[in-house]
Amino acid sequence: MTVRTGATAQLQVLSGATYVTVAKVKDISLNFSRDALETTGIGELDRTYAYGIRGTSGSGSLLYDATDSGTREILNHILSDTENLSSVKIVLDTASTNGTVTGDALITATGASVSVGDLISVPISFSISGKPTATF
Questions:
Q1: Which terminus of the chain is more exposed, N or C, with fewer CB under 10 A?
Q2: Sheet-wide strand order for 86-91
Q3: For 85-104, what is each residue's pLDDT tens digit?
Q4: Which domains are assigned to the chain?
Q5: Terminal Cα distance for the chain, rounded
Q6: What is the pTM of this model?
Q7: Helix, strand, or coil here: 91?
């Protein structure tokens, strides 16, 4: 069994017709959730549930690099007036076709964090619209 590290992961964003890799990703997280809908009826003594709506969201931190087209694409997208979604791809293992999640995302938050003696960090948050495509 081979355990993977952050060195095998990538964040990619669609720029034009091709995905570009965001050069300096400090961390990225991806969360899948599914609502639990209670189906318990009157007179029943135990709660019962059914699956509800699925949601996918994520967040991360990038290191600011003005020469990196992936970072610029994310920052410029939230500042534009477009209603178009960004397509993002998270690759957990660049040596495999498994461990990839792709989806149309709303970049919901970004910015910049600057401290004396530290690197410029760009926090991002996103929500996937619709069902993501994933292989594990």
A1: N
A2: 18-21, 10-15, 86-91, 100-110, 121-135, 49-63, 25-38
A3: 999 999 998 888 889 999 99
A4: 6-36+51-135 (2.40.10)
A5: 15
A6: 0.85
A7: strand
